[in-house]
Structure formats: structure tokens, C-alpha cells
């Protein structure tokens, strides 16, 4: 599979702060997580006479692309291909051979058919029997897909099942028909293009049982699970939903519409409440034609649903299905589910409920095992000059004693190398300019006046309400030094306000600039045109609602992303658009600058996130793997990783260096709309439409906390500057403050928990909640902590 979704060639671009991108050799999984790739046809003429079909199952990322390549030929005069005759008592091989002959006849490959029949020494009656085969599984145009389903889905009977937890790629190759040296064969070949071709994807549903028995099969399994021991019941109950979906789709695909309707009505009420939205989509698929081109349908079919089950529970299930000869359910388990088996105690209902709920089940344990450098990069050493007031303070007792230790502690933070930090040069980062150094010095001075927050010292909250926002406020951002605030609106404008007495000014015209003395000390002040000073600047350029906004760390640029599929970079010196980045094909829901500037990330409706550099008009990395829209994006404080939250109800962490997906977090029961990293880089907080805030340990890849309290979508999350408090803002018109120190202390992150996912979340949301602050009628769209730990919140007033 190609790394970049738009191009067929796999290109990895090395990140460089300056100059054109340097091409790296392609890496496995580069830009597309760890997706597998299916076999493809050797050029237009195909290879030797073998038939291969592969559904490239989604690995831990990567958009799955089912590849189907069928090549068969025997040139006139070429030596016939020797084929081993099927043994008596091997009906399965015989059936496959008949299916191949039927396919060759359909494709008008007479010579190949004759040669195969001659070599296999098949009797004429047996070939005639192949017609009956076509009738049994649908004739005519469906014969090809019948063959494919037989080849791909020739699941073993219950007597010798393969454990589904072992294989990840559902590929099968029928080259066992040939034995001995085969002459090179090159005449006709049939190639199916390497696209998520719906008919190929759906072909596995062709392998049907008796439609009248589906309800009985499902009821039998349900009865077995409900009567099993309590310790196994919770784990085995995870099977209900994926089996229900695939059995329903199999009935619909094979045009048993009445049976499908009856099956849906009888069992859809048994599914967990958090699958209701998916079931609503499923209920609209009532005819075979509806399934073509349906995204949800492709998701269910192409990504294996992951279940994490203990070995004891799995053996119990296997034994039951073998005893009952329940091939139909066993085939679905083999084909469409990935059972991640672990050794140890089965998990409780509460432990399972905490982790499930995403579109494709839980994350495989392997997905969260790779090493993540979550530590912070070493800060450059900058001398902090003493202020006048600091010097005066030397004379008074008490003042220097309070201030000096604080300064030392800031200095020591930057001098010690964090053992979990990535190498300083792991990815190229921009050089610090003089203006950046000045800003860092200002930041350090502010830090000395920062308020230490905690349960006994809560921050003040300053709320910016956008009144009469009839244009519809869709995005907000605040600069790091809290001097500017930007709003993205549904009328496609971006508006920038100054929230300090200093007004916004543009740079003078070129003619006026030529008169300025470039050597003067206040040259940066002189280039500004006082005539343009105002509190508000409006930026025009997008042609659709603006859904994301992000200021650069140096406050010289502003990014905005829109429904029009572009991300725009605006200059805050001239208040004009500098670049329009075109890469997404659909609305771009979010964009964010790296904490070091230069790089930025965007995510949208096309299900991928893209990493860009401001001086490249094409993305450097494409992060593909989510099964639905990427709603929110966030850089890790060390800029080496990007987190994305999606409507598929998962959060993924991507490595900027190679594009790999290094963490998959499941547990939310609704689309994810907000993300934030703790200042020390160890933890991630996520908020979703389910109103819950979940806390994750990045190093161990584990959920470590759940904060309940909001009654609507959590739109914004932010940690205080020292990480003691987490603030959450929601559509329920409240800001809530949580005790982050207490939430992260005494974590159980031993190896056993990491290996099996036996997490025990304390029910302590109420103890951790420090305060709830209501607005009159304003959903909280954005939160920001100033450098002195004052909370700024923003939203548009919505009259009742």
C-alpha cells in the first residue's frame, strides 16, 4: 500500500526546517500506520497460472485495501500446466477445482479450462456438476465472486479450526493446484483493480447458510453465553454485537430481506446502548444495492472487529461451537473477528465496558507496545536578566528568598535531560530566533509570578463571550502570551482581536518602508502603520465555515482550516493570506501548530491527519488508519508525536518521524472532540460527545482515569501550566476544574495490567471535581491558561 493516499508510489519525505524535502527510502508502514498490503498482479499479463485473493486486513493503521488478482492462462502450443489430481475423499479440493473450472468457463478461457480438466482427469459428469455449483451459489455474474469467496473464505470446519487470534491478514492463495515445474504461461489474465471495490469486499458474504437458521444459531449462542459462568459471561457477551452485524449483513447481501428484517427486529434490542448510532445506519441497509458504496458497510467488512478474551473463555466458546456443529457462526468468527487471547483471569463487565465502544472493537495489545519518548526536550539555556523591581527586592527581607529558589528550579528543569525524552535531533526543529529568546525570557519572568494552583487555590476564570455571533462561532484560539484571540466563523471569515490595550497594526506600504532607517533600535516599531491600528482585523479568503484556528508560538502567523478543504496560513504582520494548503478532499475539522512552530497538523472528513511544514505546499506525512472523521488534532509538547481524536471513537498517537501509529486508545462511547497533553508529556486527556473525560498514561498505553460530570459534548480541555489542574469546557454551558495531581497519583501501571488490560478505574469523579462554573447560556468552545495560571474561556452566547 502506498504511503500517501493520493499517489501510487510510496514516498517518505524527511522533515527539514529549511530547503526542499529530502526523499528517504520508503519504510514499512510509513505514513499509513502498520497496514498490511495484499498481493497484486504481476503487470498486465499476470504471472503463472495461480489464483490469489487477499483482503488486506487492517493492521494497526493503514486504510485497508482489498486486493484481488486472478490470473489464468495457457497459450496455444504451450506445455500444459500439470495439476495434481484431487484425491478421492477430498471433496473440499474437488469443490475448489470445480469452482476454478466454472470461473475459467465464465471468463472464456477455454484452453486453460481444457488443460486443467485433462490434467485433473475429471469425468464429464463432474464437469457438468459444476453447473449445479453455479446454481447453488448464484449463477452468471456472481460466479467470479463465488470463486473468490470460496478461495478467501474456505474456513475449516469445527473439527480443525485455526485460532483467529493468530492471523491478521485474511489472505489465501490457491497455488496448491499445480505440482511439478510449470511452463511460463502468458495469455489472458483478469485483474481486479486495487481499490476498496465493494463487490470484491462483499464477496465473503456469499458463503451463506440456511437463512431460516440464522435466528436459531444466534439464539443458541445467546442462550449458551447467558447460561455460562459469570466470569466468562461478560467476556463472551462481546461477541453479540459483531456477530449480529455480520449475520444481518450476510442475510441482506444474499437477498433474504424478510429474514434479515425479522433478525434485526428480534435481536437489535439486545445490543449495548453505545452502538445505537451504528445500528441506526445498519437498519437502513435493507437491500443488497444499499450496501454498495456505503462507508459504514465497508468499515464493518474491511476492518476486523477486535475482541480481547481470556484463553479460558475462548476455549469454552470453541468447544461449544464444535459440539453444536455451528459452522455459520464459526465462519464469521474466523473471517471477520480478531480475537486477542491473553492468559490470566477473565475481565469483569466493568473492566470490559471501560475499554470497548469503538467502531472496530478494542485495540490489539501489540498496538500499544512500541516505545514512546514522552519526555520533554531539553530547553536551551538562556540567561534571565534581573528586572529593576527584582533588584529593589534584594534590599527587602523575604523577597529574594522567595524568588531565587523559583528561578533556580526553572533553570534546573532545562539543564537535566529527561530519561524518557527523545534524542534532541530526532526530528529537525527550527532554530531559535532572537525574538524567540526574548519571548522565552518574558515567559520565565511571568513564571516567577505564577500562582501555584491546587484544591485550596483555584484559578480565576475570565470568560470571553461572543455576542450577536449570528455568523456562528465555529473555532477559537488564544496566543500563548494571551494577547490575541481569534475566532473562526460559519460565514467563512476569521476575526482576530487584541485583548490588551495594544492595538493591531499592519506593516507600512513598500514605498514608506524604504524611507525607514533599518539600523535604528526601534525599527520593528517604525515599520508599523499607525493609520491601520484597530482592535479587530477580519481575514477573508475561505469559501466555507472555518472549523479550526491556531496561532504560531511566535505570534507572527495564524492557521485556519475550513469546510472548503483547505488550510490557510495568515500573516499577523500584514493580515493577509500567505499560503493555501490543499491536500484534504473534504472539510478540514481541525489544525494546530507545533509547540516549536514550523510544523503543523490538520485532520478532516477524509479520515486522515496530515503533517505539514509551513514552507512545503504538500504534506510531509499522512497519518491514515482512522475509520471515520478526524475531529481534533494535538501535538505532544516535545513535537515528536501527534494525537488525533476521531468519530470512530478512538484516539491514536502517531510518530512524526516515520508516520507509524504507536498508540490506539479505545473507551469513549461517542466521537472525540477534544484532546490535551499534560505539561510533562506523560498523560493525555480526551473528551467526547459521551460527556466523559478519559485520562491516559502514554508510556504504558493504558487508561488511568475517568472524569464524569458533564452532560454534553466536551469541546475543550486544558491543563494548567504546571499540570496541577485540568479544566474542561462543554456544550452543557459549564467549565469544570479537576484535581489532576490526585487523578494521576498511585497509578497501577504494573506489567500485568499493561499486558491484559485489567484496569480498575476508581469511581472518584466527585472527589476529583474541584469546581463547576456555569455560564448563562454559552457553550464553552475554548479554554486557555495564561502564563500566570488565569483561565480564559470563550464561547458564543446562544439565546434560549
TrEMBL record:
Q: Which residues form the TFIID subunit TAF5 NTD2 domain?
A: 209-337
Q: Where is the composition biased (Low complexity)?
A: 165-175
GO cellular component terms, A-Z: transcription factor TFIID complex
Alphabetically, the GO molecular function entries are:
RNA polymerase II general transcription initiation factor activity
Q: Which InterPro entries match?
A: LisH, TFIID_NTD2, TFIID_NTD2_sf, WD40/YVTN_repeat-like_dom_sf, WD40_PAC1, WD40_repeat_CS, WD40_repeat_dom_sf, WD40_rpt
**Designated name of the protein:** Transcription initiation factor TFIID subunit 5
Query: Which PANTHER family does its entry note?
Result: TRANSCRIPTION INITIATION FACTOR TFIID (PTHR19879), TRANSCRIPTION INITIATION FACTOR TFIID SUBUNIT 5 (PTHR19879:SF4)
Q: Which GO terms describe its biological process?
A: transcription initiation at RNA polymerase II promoter
Q: Where is the composition biased (Acidic residues)?
A: 384-395
This protein's gene is called TAF5
Query: What family does the database annotate?
Result: Belongs to the WD repeat TAF5 family.
Keyword Transcription applies: yes
The residue spans of each WD repeat are 466-507, 539-574, 581-612, 623-664, 665-698, 707-739
Question: Which ranges are annotated Gly residues under compositional bias?
Answer: 30-50
Q: Which UniProt keywords apply?
A: Nucleus, Repeat, Transcription, Transcription regulation, WD repeat
